[in-house]
């Protein structure tokens, strides 16, 4: 761990690791250029973070050479003095730079700055978010520019690649992609909506009163039509309607109706909170799918959605080089698909699942022999590589992606509603005398 830490330190400056000679580093050179541009020429204030006090001291010398006023905060500064440092940075026009270690990453309000420079990359992404939040917080009225310095072809660049892979996995797991994003502020307002029992402010809509005798679900269906996807009943009896993303948001129903309307993306994002979600344990009293399909089709659709999410996670792990974990998720996705294919859900018990595949699904033609072999191969590979540090070869994992995609596609086609029957051809009178003998 000591050597690992020194690998990170040398990305900042060799002097941090006791290297003799002039304490120069590419990051300090870049910092000098930035401080000259931001503080000397632009007149702005900036907060500069580094994990190490020695790097902070070297950076302070850069500010001294430029004649820029500054303050330093680290773990050795008593708590009683910290308020004075913040006050000087906020009130003194000549104090342009606030140098801080991660001791100042929590609890400080530094909105006087509108630039944040990170001299190094924290291993924990939450620490980086906390650094930025010291400036980009409530009361900040200017855009905040954030600079993150990374040493090229170093452990820092590898760390950033790992963090990017984790973010991709997170997006694949809860659907928080750039195409379908619910911001934290929006999500918080939606949660507050349910907890308070009223529609989020700022919609520009007034509540619509509902007669006490009216059925709120019927009222919702009449107002929203096909945009209404489902309706939840919370533990206290209140109703929450979920509409398709992109559909116009209507006004909430009044207290008598007790219905709050959310976009589907917000409701889906709430599921990530698990048992603490406002929708946890809520009863589903209406779904558009159940209104149009039978119960078995709803079950199959839910399992297909679970399988798709597992495949998306497996794809993100494969791209990050984590082939063992990707293999395990592909196997899990295939099990879910087999459960979706069965007329009655066999669960994930291996013996029961195997009996269902070879006793029911393959003989009935629902699954092919190739599907059964793919399931067995995925299970054997997962077990083989679960207890070894070796990674499975990409050539063994990649074909499973194709097998899963093919099976999922066929099951979706089977779940698609049948087209309406063609109208019968009009009856045509036939002269029996022209038909000749039988």
Task: Describe this structure as you would to a colleague.
- By secondary structure, the chain is of the alpha/beta class.
- About 50% of the residues lie in helices and about 10% in strands.
- A 5-stranded parallel beta sheet has the order 2-3-1-4-5, sandwiched between helices. The chain has a 4-stranded mixed beta sheet with strand order 8-7-6-9, sandwiched between helices.
- Helix 11 packs antiparallel against helix 12 (about 325-340) and helix 12 runs antiparallel to helix 14.
- The longest helix has 25 residues, at about 295-320.
- The chain is flat, with a radius of gyration of 31 Å.
Rg over C-alpha atoms, rounded to the nearest angstrom: 31 Å
CATH classification, class level of the largest domain: Alpha Beta
Structural class: alpha/beta
DSSP strand content? 5-15%
Q: What is the average per-residue confidence, as pLDDT, rounded to a whole number?
A: 77
Q: Biggest β-sheet, characterized?
A: 5 strands, parallel
DSSP E strands, number: 9
First-residue to last-residue Cα separation: 97 Å
CATH fold name of the largest domain? Rossmann fold
Sheet with the most strands: spatial strand order: 2-3-1-4-5
Number of helices: 15
Order of helices and strands: HHEHEHEEHEHHHEEEHEHHHHHH
By CATH, the architecture of the largest domain is named 3-Layer(aba) Sandwich
Shape descriptor reads flat
**Considering DSSP H and I runs of 4 or more, what fraction of the residues is helical?**
40-55%
Q: Could you give me the name of the CATH homologous superfamily of the largest domain?
A: P-loop containing nucleotide triphosphate hydrolases
Low-confidence stretches: 176-213, 252-257, 418-438
Structural domains: how many? 3
């Amino acid at each position: 761990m000591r050597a690992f830490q020194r690998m990170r330190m040398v990305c900042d400056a060799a002097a941090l690791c006791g290297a003799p000679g002039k304490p120069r580093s590419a990051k300090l050179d870049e910092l000098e250029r930035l401080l000259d541009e931001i503080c000397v020429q632009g007149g702005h204030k900036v907060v500069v973070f580094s994990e190490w006090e020695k790097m902070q001291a070297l950076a302070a010398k850069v500010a001294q050479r430029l004649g820029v006023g500054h303050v330093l905060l680290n773990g050795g500064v008593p708590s009683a003095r910290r308020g004075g440092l913040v006050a000087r940075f906020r009130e003194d026009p000549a104090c342009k730079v606030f140098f801080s270690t991660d001791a100042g990453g929590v609890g400080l309000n530094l909105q006087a700055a509108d630039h944040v420079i990170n001299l190094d990359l924290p291993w924990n992404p939450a620490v980086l978010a906390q650094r930025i939040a010291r400036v980009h917080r409530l009361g900040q009225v200017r855009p905040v520019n954030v600079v993150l310095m990374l040493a090229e072809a170093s452990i820092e660049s590898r760390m950033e690649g790992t963090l990017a892979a984790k973010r991709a996995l997170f997006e694949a797991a809860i659907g928080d992609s750039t195409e379908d994003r619910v911001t934290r502020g929006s999500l918080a307002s939606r949660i507050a909506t349910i907890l308070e029992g009223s529609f989020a402010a700022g919609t520009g809509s007034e509540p619509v009163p509902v007669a006490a005798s009216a059925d709120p679900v019927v009222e919702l269906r009449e107002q929203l039509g096909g945009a209404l996807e489902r309706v939840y009943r919370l533990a206290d009896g209140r109703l929450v309607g979920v509409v398709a993303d992109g559909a116009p948001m209507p006004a909430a129903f009044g207290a008598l109706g007790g219905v709050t309307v959310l976009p589907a993306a917000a409701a889906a994002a709430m599921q990530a909170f698990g048992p603490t979600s406002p929708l946890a344990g809520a009863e589903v009293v209406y779904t558009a799918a159940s209104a149009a399909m039978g119960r078995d089709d709803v079950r199959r659709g839910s399992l297909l959605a679970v399988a798709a999410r597992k495949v998306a996670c497996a794809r993100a792990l494969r791209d990050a080089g984590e082939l063992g974990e990707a293999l395990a998720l592909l196997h899990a996705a295939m099990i879910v698909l087999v459960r979706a294919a069965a007329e009655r859900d066999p669960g994930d018990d291996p013996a029961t699942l195997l009996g269902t595949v070879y006793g029911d699904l393959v003989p009935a033609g629902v699954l092919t022999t190739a599907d059964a072999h793919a399931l067995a191969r995925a299970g054997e590979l997962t077990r083989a590589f679960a207890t070894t540090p070796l990674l499975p070869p990409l050539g063994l994992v990649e074909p499973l992606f194709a097998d899963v995609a093919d099976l999922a596609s066929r099951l979706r086609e089977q779940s698609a509603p049948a087209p309406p029957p063609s109208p019968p051809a009009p009856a045509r009178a036939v002269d029996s005398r022209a038909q000749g003998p039988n």
